[in-house]
Specification:
Number of domains: 2
Largest sheet: 3 strands, antiparallel
Structural class: mainly alpha
Distance between the termini: 47 Å
CATH architecture of the largest domain: Up-down Bundle
Shape: globular
Number of strands: 5
Order of helices and strands: EEHEEEHHHHHHHHHHHHHHHHHHH
Low-confidence stretches: 1-38, 41-53, 99-111, 113-134, 404-414
CATH topology of the largest domain: Na+/H+ antiporter like fold
CATH class of the largest domain: Mainly Alpha
Strand content: 5-15%
Strand order of the largest sheet: 3-4-5
Helix content: 55-70%
Length: 414
């Protein structure tokens, strides 16, 4: 004899069952089940033939943290603009964030550890690590890696069309658009180089948030950001050398090394944590959005603060082409996929991904690998316009509903 649970009674009623079921009952009797809700979690276990459920409320402090985190994340474009304004008119606020913090990274830590494990000492791995940058840009890239798995890349292989077109828009349209705008506005050679560098940079992490606000395909946005970020290890130095090699000296090898240190190593480390240390990854996940927002705001503000006089003195001649770079790329990023019969959510996603660049990373590369000071100015200016254009697109689309038919097409394609 064994007992079957009778819903609503909280007890087990007797029924005749096969004896072979007894082993299953014994296994269930020693098993605990957990059900998590937004405000509590419930532990269910079997005790003396009865189902015992214990409900525990989640900490009010934790709930407060979640609400605060959502508010900080939702207003991310606003924080970026506020930090940018403060950096422009009071650069001394971010004077502590010096070049050495940009040049050390979690990627360097990773390579340093690997070099000692393999008994190899090289100029790439054997470096001094600075805690500030470790926390900021290293943590920002690590947080992306924690959310990724190999299955995400398998999805790209199954549905590659949108990602391929996003890749082409990022690394074909934007660099040529930057070069064309620089020539059309008759900018000095160094500023043209900086503008092209902005076009050659991967998509920014803030695009994922703006895609969510715009009711786009967040999963596709994350994939496109990841693909362009990893591809940037090769594409950014290749494009800079191809387009600018005859204009200004380009350290393509140095750019590639920096991309590997700042981008690849933290993402690989994060993916490794996700697979082999899932408990650690799950513990870090609720914290990473706040770290990402704070890190990006500080990186953006630092880039602006270091070029504040040049930005304020650049005038309309530089502001307009950089604004057009982000605005035109966003418009083209929407209408080209629209003509190619992508869904509305995909079109919005690709527009934001194309428009929003990782300008802070562009500033880092200009600072490290271009001798001309002026090449870093477009990246610093781009920080401002990238945030404003991306936030504007997101807010406008938030109030334009996506039809059920188009939503269903998106779900079907996934």
């Amino acid at each position: 004899m064994c007992r079957a649970y009778q819903p609503g009674s909280g007890r087990f009623s007797s029924h005749n069952m096969l004896k072979t079921s007894a082993n299953l009952v014994k296994q269930l009797a020693s098993t605990n089940f957990y059900f998590s809700g937004p405000e509590s979690f419930t532990k269910v276990k079997m005790s003396g033939g009865a189902v015992v459920a214990t409900t525990t409320k989640k900490s009010s402090l934790w709930n407060t943290y979640l609400v605060t985190m959502n508010a900080l994340t939702a207003f991310f474009p606003l924080w970026t603009v506020l930090f940018t304004g403060l950096a422009l008119f009071k650069p001394s606020t971010f004077a502590w964030f010096t070049t050495k913090y940009f040049t050390a990274s979690l990627g360097r830590v990773f390579l340093h550890i690997c070099s000692h494990a393999l008994h190899i000492r090289s100029s790439i791995a054997y470096v001094h690590v600075y805690l500030t940058y470790f926390i900021l840009l290293g943590a920002l890239m690590l947080s992306m890696g924690i959310t990724l798995a190999l299955d995400d890349f398998l999805r790209v292989a199954k549905e590659p069309k949108a990602v391929i077109w996003g890749f082409l828009l990022c690394y074909a349209l934007c660099p040529l658009l930057g070069l064309g705008l620089g020539k059309a506005f008759n900018l000095p050679v160094d500023l043209v180089a900086g503008l092209v560098l902005v076009g050659c940079i991967n998509g920014g992490q803030a695009s994922n948030l703006c895609t969510y606000i715009a009711k786009g395909d967040v999963a596709l946005s994350v994939l496109m950001t990841t693909v362009t970020t990893i591809a940037g290890i090769f594409m950014t130095p290749l494009l800079c050398k191809s387009i600018l090699g005859a204009v200004v000296p380009v350290d393509s090898v140095g750019i590639a090394v920096s991309c590997m240190q700042v981008v690849l190593a933290p993402i690989v480390l994060g993916m490794g944590m996700n697979k082999y240390m899932p408990k650690v990854a799950n513990t870090l996940l609720p914290v990473t959005p706040v770290i990402g927002v704070a890190s990006t705001c500080l990186l953006v503000a630092s880039a602006v603060a270091q070029c504040a006089p040049a930005i304020l003195n650049a005038g309309v001649q530089l502001q307009i082409p950089i604004l057009l770079l982000h605005l035109v790329s966003g418009i083209a990023g929407y209408w080209i996929p629209r003509v190619l019969n992508f869904t509305e959510t995909q079109c919005r996603t690709m527009a934001i991904e194309t428009s929003m660049k990782s300008s802070a990373f562009g500033f880092l590369l200009a600072q490290l690998h271009f001798k001309q000071y002026a090449t870093r100015i477009p990246s610093a200016v781009s920080v401002v316009w990238m945030a404003l254009v991306g936030a504007t697109l997101a807010v406008v689309w938030r109030f334009i509903p996506v039809s059920d038919e188009k939503r269903n097409r998106t779900v079907a394609m996934e």
